[in-house]
C-alpha cells in the first residue's frame, strides 16, 4: 500500500468503519480493513463494497464495486462520500451458514432486517409479520427462559411493543389482544437461542422479500437481443424475467458455466458490454458448449454480473480456506486460484479487460458453416426450432437450432 491519502467511511451493519486509503489501495484491501475494524474475521469472499442503494425498491440495481479497482479510480469514477459493506454472495441454506460462520449469519440477518424495516409499510402478510416481530422480541431477552410479562414490561418502557410490528399487524390487532398474542407466542419460543431467532427470521424475510437475488436490466441474445431482467442468486441461479412474466425463467445453472467472456463494443447506440457464458449442456467432454449472450449499457452493471457469476460458480468460494487462515486484504491469491480465475475469466472483467483477438470466443462458437438445417420441429419461445446436423471433423451429432442461425450468425 502506498502513502496514506484519505480517510474513507464504510457503513456496516455493525457500525461505521474509518479506513485510511492510499491511491493504490484496492477494493479487496478496503473490504479486509473494514471487516477487521468491526471484528468480522472470516468469509471475506462473501462480502463486497457497494454504492448507496435504494432499499425501498428490491428490484433496483445493486452496484457492487469491482475488487480490482483502486481508491484513485473509485474517486475519479464515483466521488463517494461513503461506501457500504454488504454480503454480496448469499448462502443457499442459512442453517449450513450458521454452522460454518456464526458472525456472517448475524451480519446477514441484520442486513435483511434493515431491508425489511425499509419496507415496513408495504408488508401485507399479517401472520408472517407477527411471527417476525415476536422472534425479534425474543432475541432481546438475555436468558433462555424469559418471563414474558417482565420482558414486555421492559419493552413498554423502552422502544415500545408496537415498534416491532408493521402497520398491517397493528391494524389487525387491538392493543390488549396484540399483547396477549405476543405473550402466547413467546411461550412457544422461550427456549430459542439468539441463533435460532436469527435463522427463523431470515427464512421469513426470504419468503416476504426474496432478498437473495440481484436483478440487472440487460438485453438477452446475440446482436441487439431483447430486453429482460437478469436474475442471479442461489435459488434462481441464472434466470431471466420477461415482460409481464409472473416468475423468473431459469436459463443456466452455476455448475454448468465453464467460462465467462467479456467484450466491449462501440456502435451508433454507444458503448455496450457483452458478457457471454460458455455453458456445458452435456456430460460428453467433446460436446460443444452453448454460448449465451447478455448485453449491458453500463460498465458497472456488466462488472457486477461478471463477479457475481465468478463467486457463485465457485471461483471465489474456493478461496475460503485461505481467507480463514490469512490476514484478509493483504495476502496475494494462491497460484492455483489465480490460474482457475484466469481460465474462468479469460478476457478479464469490464474494468480490467484483456486485449484479445476474440480467439477464446471463436474457439467456443459453432461456425454457421458447420451446421446444416434440415426441417422445422416447431415454434419455441424465441422463434422456430430446427432439426439440424452439426459437423465437427468427421463426426455428426443431431441438435436443435434457433431461427437466428438462418442469418449466418454464430450461436449466442
TrEMBL record:
Task: Please name the source species.
Answer: Fasciola gigantica (Giant liver fluke)
PANTHER family xref list: FERM AND PDZ DOMAIN-CONTAINING PROTEIN FAMILY MEMBER (PTHR46221), NON-SPECIFIC PROTEIN-TYROSINE KINASE (PTHR46221:SF9)
Top-rank taxon of the source lineage equals Eukaryota
Give the InterPro entries listed for this entry: FAK1-like_FERM_C, FERM/acyl-CoA-bd_prot_sf, FERM_2, PH-like_dom_sf
Pfam families, per database record: FERM_C_FAK1
Kindly state which keywords UniProt assigns to this record, in alphabetical order. Kinase, Transferase
Gene3D superfamilies in UniProt:
1.20.80.10, Phosphorylase Kinase, domain 1, Pleckstrin-homology domain (PH domain)/Phosphotyrosine-binding domain (PTB)
User: Source taxonomy lineage?
Assistant: Eukaryota, Metazoa, Spiralia, Lophotrochozoa, Platyhelminthes
Q: List residues of the FAK1-like FERM domain.
A: 218-313
Q: What is the protein name for this chain?
A: Focal adhesion kinase 1
Asked if the Swiss-Prot or TrEMBL record annotates the protein with the keyword Transport, the reply is no
User: Which GO molecular function terms does the record list?
Assistant: kinase activity
Q: Answer yes or no on keyword Zinc.
A: no
